[in-house]
Specification:
- The chain has a single domain (2-258), classed as monomeric porin ompg (Porin, Beta Barrel), CATH 2.40.160.40.
- Helix content is 11%, strand content 58%.
- The chain contains 1 helix and 15 strands, in the order αβββββββββββββββ.
- It has a 12-stranded antiparallel beta barrel.
- The two termini are 40 Å apart.
Length: 261
C-alpha cells in the first residue's frame, strides 16, 4: 500500500509548481496586463508566454539643488518585456537619450545615452489567491557616456510582493540589493494602490535606501488604461533629506504589443 501511495505523493509534490504556474498564467490572461511602470517597485506578475510589452518614459526627470547650483536631468528610459512561460520573463532596458543641465553662475548642458541592462523576472508559485510575489535579477552594462553612465558593471536582485485587498485596491512591498564597483546598497519601498474609475487609478509610495542607493523619498502617481492595451502614467517623488533629489517626476506610456497565452 505504501509503495502505491509514495509515487503518487511524489508526483503531486513535483507537479505543484507546474500547476501553480499554470494557475498564475490563467489568472494573468484573465486580467489586464500588469505594467512595471510607474513606481519604485515593479509588477509582481510575469507576462505569459508570448507576451510582449514596451514601456517608455516621456521622459522621467529629477531636480537637485546644491548650494548655488541646480541640476536638472531627464531620461527617456525604455524597457522591452517578453514572457517566456512558466512564470519567467525576459527584459531588455536602456536609456537611449539623456539630458542634463546645470544652472549656476553659468548654464551648461550635456546630452548622451545612459546604461543598458538585461533582466530576468520569475513569479513565485504561491498558493495564496491574495498574495503575488516575483524576483527580478538585473545585470547592468556600463554602456552609457558620462555623466549618465556608470563606471562599471552592476548587479541587482530585487523582490516585489503584492497583497490584493479587493475592490481594485492593493498593498505592495519592495526590497532590492545592489552591487557595483562604487559600492553596495539596498532600497526598500512600500505602496498603496487604489482606483478612481475602471480606467483611472492612483497610488502613494515611500522609499528608503542606504549605501549607493541612499534615498528618502515619498510621493505617488496616476495611471490611465486605454482599451486594455495602453497605459498612460504620471508620477512625482519628493526628496525628504539633503542627499536625495529634491524632486523626481515623469510621464510615460506602456503598450501591450502581444498578450501571449
Amino acid at each position: 500500500m505504501v509503495g502505491r501511495i509514495a509515487p503518487r505523493v511524489l508526483l503531486a509534490i513535483l507537479a505543484w509548481p507546474v500547476c501553480s504556474f499554470a494557475q498564475t498564467a490563467q489568472q494573468q490572461s484573465d486580467a489586464d496586463t500588469q505594467f512595471d511602470r510607474p513606481g519604485l517597485s515593479f509588477a509582481s506578475w510575469s507576462l505569459p508566454r508570448g507576451g510582449l510589452v514596451w514601456e517608455q518614459g516621456l521622459p522621467d526627470a529629477s531636480w537637485q539643488h546644491d548650494g548655488d547650483a541646480t541640476t536638472v536631468q531627464a531620461n527617456a528610459d525604455s524597457r522591452l518585456r517578453m514572457g517566456l512561460g512558466h512564470g519567467i520573463e525576459l527584459q531588455f532596458a536602456g536609456t537611449p537619450y539623456a539630458y542634463q543641465e546645470t544652472r549656476a553662475a553659468t548654464r551648461t548642458h550635456v546630452h548622451g545615452q545612459g546604461d543598458s541592462d538585461v533582466a530576468l523576472k520569475w513569479t513565485l508559485p504561491l498558493s495564496s489567491q491574495a498574495w503575488t510575489a516575483a524576483l527580478l535579477a538585473t545585470h547592468k552594462f556600463a554602456s552609457g557616456g558620462q555623466p549618465f553612465g556608470s563606471s562599471g558593471h552592476a548587479d541587482q536582485l530585487a523582490v516585489a510582493v503584492t497583497r490584493d485587498l479587493g475592490n481594485s485596491r492593493s498593498f505592495g512591498g519592495y526590497l532590492a540589493r545592489d552591487s557595483q564597483q562604487q559600492g553596495r546598497g539596498w532600497m526598500s519601498a512600500a505602496s498603496y494602490g487604489f482606483p478612481f474609475t475602471d480606467a483611472l487609478s492612483g497610488y502613494v509610495e515611500a522609499g528608503f535606501g542606504n549605501g549607493i542607493d541612499h534615498a528618502r523619498v515619498a510621493g505617488g502617481g496616476l495611471t490611465m488604461l486605454l482599451d486594455h492595451r495602453v497605459q498612460l502614467d504620471g508620477w512625482v517623488l519628493r526628496g525628504l533629506d539633503h542627499s536625495s533629489p529634491d524632486w523626481q517626476a515623469g510621464f510615460g506610456v506602456s503598450i501591450v504589443l502581444a498578450r501571449g497565452h
